[in-house]
Design brief:
By secondary structure, the protein is of the alpha/beta class. The protein has one domain: TIM Barrel (Alpha-Beta Barrel), CATH 3.20.20. It contains eleven helices and 14 strands. The strands form four sheets. It has an eight-stranded parallel β-sheet. It has a two-stranded antiparallel ribbon with strand order 1-3. Strands 2-4 form a two-stranded antiparallel sheet. α7 links the parallel β12 and β13. It is globular and about 55 Å long. The two termini are 27 Å apart.
């Protein structure tokens, strides 16, 4: 649930076509400020465990808000490259929603084009029109995304919460769904309540270097109650890049194998013990590569996280 990232501070694409990138396994891009660009070898990103089950998932996911809202019958070459490169890095979790207009259908179209269906499929139910409306919507999402069973369905923005959450648990009990979740940006008290009640396996919330409200209560509750955390808006809709546009990447970033501000921002998020997977969204192949590289090497430790906050907010 994140707009396409601001180009400031990101890497710039230096040449090869999407087909060549996928064929070679290399991502030829470099920091925009570099005078000596070097290709970066793509390697599989680290995996993390879902707290409730111990299931392993790759540590960087893919959001689709706005960025995948395209004609699913069109060629969409950039999005084919984005999805192909996401999978080549070892990515798995793709998150969508009926709120995102054509995004679910585009995910299904891309998987068909690539002949790849080995995703961790996540979407949302987004209606307050009652139980049957929610059921119909979720079945439609299955058809659009091309999966017979979702791994994760979340009640989007807590809309119709009690009714839809009841259905999700019924689907899970019947084996029609693997995990139950909610998403919310504002009512964090309610999110915490659902976590402590054991009502959800996943939550999806905003969290970033400059949006740390969830650190006070929600994230500690998730650790205590074994709830997985997906992070939306990791770049604050590009505002984080604007905040550092005139600043040089700190030398200590190399200690954490971070070669861009975007990677530092994602490694900050991954450095919190409660976080499972951030889900940045993009329609640009070079931004996808930059995002996924944050899943290689260590996350930021406590000292580096504090230093990054000072750099961004100072």
């Amino acid at each position: 649930m994140q707009q396409d990232q601001n180009r400031q501070g990101r890497r710039t694409f230096l040449g090869a076509s999407a087909t060549a990138v996928l064929a070679t396994g290399l991502a030829p891009f470099a920091d925009a400020s570099s005078q000596d660009p070097k290709p970066m070898e793509r390697s599989a990103i680290r995996r993390v465990r879902i707290p409730r089950t111990g299931e392993l998932l790759p540590s960087i996911g893919l959001g689709t808000s706005r960025t995948f809202d395209e004609d699913p019958s069109a060629e969409n070459a950039d999005l084919v490259a984005v999805m192909g490169q996401f999978l080549a890095w070892g990515g798995s979790l793709v998150d969508s929603s009926p709120m995102y207009k054509r995004s679910e259908a585009v995910v299904g179209s891309l998987c068909k084009t690539l002949g790849r269906y080995d995703l961790f499929y996540a979407t949302k139910v987004w209606t307050q029109e009652g139980k049957q409306a929610g059921i119909d919507q979720m079945h439609h999402s299955e058809e659009l995304m091309g999966t017979p069973r979702f791994d994760l369905i979340q009640v989007h923005n807590l809309l119709g919460l009690d009714v839809q959450l009841e259905t999700l648990h019924q689907w899970k009990d019947a084996g029609q769904l693997r995990y139950v979740g909610v998403t919310e940006m504002r009512d964090l008290e309610k999110v915490e309540e659902l976590v402590t009640q054991g009502a959800v396996d996943f939550i999806q919330i905003p969290y970033s270097v400059t949006d740390r409200e969830v650190e006070a209560r929600v994230l500690p509750a998730c650790i205590e109650h074994n709830v997985a955390v997906l992070v939306m808006r990791p770049f604050q809709s590009g505002r984080l890049f604007e905040a550092v546009k005139d600043k040089s990447l700190p030398a200590w970033a190399a200690d954490f194998e971070a070669a861009s501000w975007g990677q530092l921002f994602l490694k900050f998020i991954l450095g919190h013990d409660a976080v499972t997977i951030p889900i940045p969204a993009t329609s640009k192949p070079h931004h996808l590569d930059d995002n996924m590289a944050a899943g290689v090497g260590p996350a930021l430790d406590a000292a580096a996280r504090a230093e990054l906050v000072k750099l961004v907010e100072g």
